[in-house]
Amino acid sequence: MDNRRVATVFGGAGFIGRHIVQRLAKQGFIVRIAGRDTEKAGKLRTLGAVAQIVPVAASVTDEASVARAVAGAEVVINLVGILFERKEGDFARIQAEGAGRVARLAAAAGVRRLVHLSAIGADAASESLYARTKAEGEAAVREAFPAATILRPSVVFGPEDQFFNRFAGLAAVLPIMPVVAGETRFQPVYVGDVADAVMAAIGREDTVGRTYELGGPRAMSMRDVLAFVLEATGRRRMLVDLPDRLVEFQARMGEKLPTPPLTRDQLILLRRDNLVAEGALTLADLGIAPKAVEAIVPAYLARFRRGGVRRAAA
Predict the structure, then answer these.
(1) How far apart are CA 146 and CA 142, in angstroms?
(2) pLDDT digits (tens, 9 = 90+) for 16-29
(3) pTM of the predicted structure, to 2 decimals
(4) 222-233 and 164-173 are packed helices; what angle lies between their axes, rounded to 10 degrees?
């Protein structure tokens, strides 16, 4: 194993990360899973051979730990991002400064390939702190490591997602389905396709220095998403549009919770379509045919049907 290639994955223990770690292990990399929760990362050791997957304590906000994590690595993948701030300034520290730090120290360590996961909607002029710091992170990566490949996915779905699963859970307990930003469109992309895009980015020379936007084959409005979830789970619920003022009040109150269900910053994002831009490089340019929501999601939402998976199968 000492002679094998090393890949460091920041945020590798998360929803998207575990799919990437598995693919890296299959290609023979020694995989360092860099993050705060080494216990969670340790559970992924079974995805590889003995001593092939190594949890490493690191935070993108800490210079020394990032330097240790990237030392001797051939490939570095940064998946770290947050949806809300626990402390004021977290977006800047993690998504902007942290992204730049990983890129700068990866370059200093002689890393061959860097892949940075951003998001569709990254925009330096956005009113949203999330979108603005995503754009700042991209700029910092480009400055420190010009050859980096940047991937911008739309909403990512898969068996462990917090998108379709979340709405299916609500449909199981609420008498109606509340609708927020019902006309906003998304282009949900399968987590396995995102992981394949990462592998293509580190394996193909034509991805050097390029940015790709990752979306599935179908654009869905929020109303489409909710209707699809109800159909997949066999629930009959009326879709009810919530007044803007009520939603803004709920978001303001929700921000006081440790894990807010919705924030005012997220509301800004929800008012803008989350689609692959016209003319952007896409999954097709990476040789990947995106999988449709209809082909994947009903199988893992079956547990939300009355009677659960067994009845749905019957």
Answers:
(1) 5
(2) 999 999 999 999 99
(3) 0.94
(4) 60
